[in-house]
Amino acid sequence: MVYALINAQIYDYHTYLENGYVVFDKKIIEVGSMKNYRNIDYNEINCKGKIIIPSFVSGHTHLYSAFARGMSFDFNPKDFVEILKQLWWKLDYFLDKDLIYYSAIMGALEQLSMGTTTLIDHHASQKVDGSLDLIKKALNDSVGMRGILAFETSDRFNVSDAVKENVNFIKNNRTSIISGLFGLHASLSLSDESLRQVSDNLNDEGIHIHVAESIMDEDDCLDKYKIRVVERLEKFNLLNEKSLLVHCTHINEKEMDIIKKYNATIAVNVTSNLNNAVGISQIKKFLDKGIRVISGNDGLIPSQAIEYLNIFYLSHLKENSPIGFSLDDLKTIILNTYDYANMILKTNLGRLDVASEADLMVVDFNPYTLVDKSNIFGHLFYGVFPSLKPEMVVAKGNILIKDYNFVNDNKELYEKALNKANELWKKIKEEGNNIEFKY
């Protein structure tokens, strides 16, 4: 079916149309001013008083974390590694195949409701073999989103199994809907032997790894290997233009220069960093060095718009200046996030022009001050992002949310997810304290 969204304001971070239309099926067929619009048997949807923008990409998320919400048990961490041991490593230890599948669905649906249609996911679970296919099934078949998936190789798991899971998934999934990266947890949970095994099987693919999220990652690397984290990745030939280095909260200037040398990408997750009290990344310095910086949510909150707000305001704090980080800097990160996903998926996400992917959202937009091409991004940032809740969300040309509601009835999925979450919590409470982790 071919749809025409008419009488809308249209903005894709490049071009602004005050009163226009978008015609699409799987891709965008036509975009233009309403004065030129002609209905050729289109299914029309009137978007007067709305703005059409591209749907979001989350540059780093953890769908398996979905069932952590509301979980209540002893939690008294004194540092970052204790956060991992007391919460996340217990959670991923007990994930079975059903839990992987339903947590992926729930995490995806929630992010979809906030306008995100493409997820770069970083998965961890004791059930290694076939886990990424379960997430693929959840994203593509059950929800209708795009994904770039990776399994967190770590010495906590069977490294050979994790390497095989990443290699096979990347090999068998190279479409505009689903693709893969080679997942690694972090330097602190990977021995030299494990990194060598990854390097031997990387085949010029990109890694997806947490880097210096906490200072403990850098301290561990310096203590054990006498080099810093990014230097260690370079030593094992793990850096290239596809590599995705997450957080980079505590890297130094030399490490930034190495990242730039290989044209690798940094994914910042500022809200999660605040929650874990690990610090604020030097985002402005990354950008000034010409490093591609993208934004994720680390699985903490579903709203990419809120992540963009927090990047802007926290960068002012980091730079100790209310003008030390501009809206243009933020726009660069938004565009970079689309560009990175496009490089991996071979798509044209983030644009509302002919032949681009029909991945977009429709949002209420009734400004009370002048709007033109010079200030539209400011209106979006200050007026739309703080309470963004799309009326319509489209992915791959399919309307997944309409009139603020999911088009598909997900009641049964929610009921099954609730039962599975209860099972998980019971296991953690009854058996979680008996698990010993080596780090």
Report on the architecture of this protein:
The chain starts with a strand and ends in an 8-residue tail after the last helix. The mean pLDDT is 94. It has 14 helices and 18 strands. The chain is globular. The chain is α/β, with parallel strands linked by helices and 439 residues long.
Observed structural traits:
439 residues, 21% strand, TIM Barrel, five-stranded parallel β-sheet, 18 strands, 39% helix, Urease, subunit C, domain 1, single chain, alpha/beta
Average pLDDT for all residues: 94
Major β-sheet, in short? Answer: 9 strands, mixed
Number of strands: 18
Radius of gyration: 22 Å
Total helical elements: 14
**Shape by Cα distribution:** globular
Measured as a percent range, the helix fraction is 25-40%
CATH class of the largest domain: Alpha Beta
